[in-house]
C-alpha cells in the first residue's frame, strides 16, 4: 500500500500563487509516476500535470501550461505543484495520484477568488 498526503491548498486571489505538496509513504516503488488531477463542482475529474520520478518528461494540461510547474524531491518522496497566475477557473479540489497501483490522495481544496 502507498499512502499519499496532500497539503498546501487554500484561498487566494486571482493572479496569486500556491504550492501544493504530495508526500508518498508506504510500499513505494523505485520507478513510478506521480501526477495531479483536479475536480471542480459539477465537473469530472481532469488531468493537470504528471512527472516520472526517473526525471523523464513532464506533462501538463493545456489549461495550465506556462502557469503550473510539477517538481519532486526524491529524498522526501514528495511531488509539488507550483501554481502561478491563478484564475478563478482553477478553483477545484486537487488530488495527487501515484502509479503503479493507482493510489490517490484525499484531496486539497484550492479556491481562487476574482
Can you describe this structure?
With 114 residues, this protein is mainly beta. The chain is 0% helix and 56% strand. It has strands at residues 2-7, 10-13, 18-26, 33-39, 46-52, 58-60, 68-73, 78-83, 92-99, 103-104, 108-113. Strands 2, 4, 5, 6, 9, 10 and 11 form a seven-stranded mixed sheet that branches. It has a four-stranded antiparallel sheet with strand order 1-3-8-7, with no helix packed on it. It starts with a strand and ends with a strand.
Highlighted features:
single chain, 114 residues, mainly beta, 7-stranded mixed beta sheet, globular
Strand percentage: over 45%
Shape: globular
Alpha carbon gap, first and last residue: 40 Å
Helix content: under 10%
For the largest beta-sheet, the strand count, sense and barrel status come to: 7 strands, mixed
Q: Low-confidence parts, pLDDT < 50 over ≥5 residues?
A: none
Average pLDDT taken over every residue? 93
Number of helices: 0
Order of helices and strands: EEEEEEEEEEE
How would you sum up this structure in a few lines?
By secondary structure, the chain is mainly β.
Write the layout of secondary structure elements.
Layout lengths: L1 E6 L2 E4 L4 E9 L6 E7 L6 E7 L5 E3 L7 E6 L4 E6 L8 E8 L3 E2 L3 E6 L1
Parallel strand pairs: 2-11
Antiparallel strand pairs: 1-3, 3-8, 4-5, 4-9, 5-6, 7-8, 9-10, 9-11
Amino acid at each position: 500500500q502507498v499512502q499519499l498526503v496532500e497539503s498546501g491548498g487554500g484561498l487566494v486571489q486571482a493572479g496569486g500563487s500556491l504550492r501544493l505538496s504530495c508526500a508518498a509513504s508506504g510500499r513505494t516503488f523505485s520507478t513510478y509516476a506521480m501526477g495531479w488531477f483536479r475536480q471542480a463542482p459539477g465537473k469530472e475529474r481532469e488531468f493537470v500535470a504528471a512527472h516520472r520520478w526517473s526525471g523523464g518528461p513532464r506533462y501538463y494540461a493545456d489549461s495550465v501550461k506556462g502557469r503550473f510547474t510539477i517538481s519532486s524531491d526524491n529524498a522526501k518522496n514528495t511531488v509539488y505543484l507550483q501554481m502561478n497566475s491563478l484564475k478563478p477557473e482553477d478553483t477545484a479540489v486537487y488530488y495527487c495520484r501515484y502509479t503503479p497501483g493507482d493510489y490517490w490522495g484525499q484531496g486539497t481544496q484550492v479556491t481562487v477568488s476574482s
